[in-house]
Amino acid sequence: MGRIAEAALARHRAITMAALALLVIIAWAWIALGAGMGMPIHAALALFPHNPTTMPAIGSMAGSTPGFALTFSMWWVMMIAMMLPSAAPTVLLYARASHRRTGDPEPPTAIFVLGYLIVWGGFSALAALGQSWLQAHALMGAMTMQSASRWLSAIVLLAAGAFQLSPLKDACLASCRNPAAFISRHYRPGAAGAIRLGLIHGGYCLGCCWLLMGILFVGGTMNLAWIALLTLFVAAEKMLPHGRRIAIASGIGLIGWGVATLLV
């Protein structure tokens, strides 16, 4: 019976890994193709740079209900693409820990992931609201989707850098870097326990990275290079042996970048 359960768990883990990989691939494909926003807007910028007749129309779209829904979708898919890869080890560890505690060869892993993504959905809604407000006040380019204000860029960079050096960053990063201790502390059985654990884990990851995501306002919210760079950086912080040192070094670098933005 034990071998049968272990085989079922191994199958469940394989399916989970495949599902996570597929979800991440789809999200990255969506970003790369610029579905709905990126490609058309950047194409318009290339074809009609500084066209005074098109900029107001595109800018006003961001504040509309369809425009907000599109911006929210962009952010949420982007967060899935960026954050799910570094969460995968915790997801797989949860499946094994749940099996060991309950004997269930098919633990509610999908519900755990759902809780995690709900947190990033909430963040995406706030980010979309922020982007709409910034565009409405001409602080962010409607077509370039990046900061149009030196002061805004500097404030974001300085805030992100300071946060990288803060005790809150330390606490959240420590939890993300030690999934075994996190699961041991917060685990509850069943579907309700799974979504609760996903929400808590998402909260820690959000606490660890939310100001880093603000850098996208500086580099461009649909800039593929910036998205990829931040994805790798978040994974390095969480998974490499000296993640805390990486965070400290990046904090110093971001503060320097923010100061340079004001002075240059």
UniProtKB/TrEMBL annotation:
Alphabetical keyword list: Membrane, Transmembrane, Transmembrane helix
Superkingdom in the source lineage: Bacteria
Segments passing through the bilayer: 20-48, 68-95, 107-128, 210-234, 246-263
Pfam families in the cross-refs: PpoB2 (PF09948)
Protein name: DUF2182 domain-containing protein
Organism: Flavisphingopyxis soli
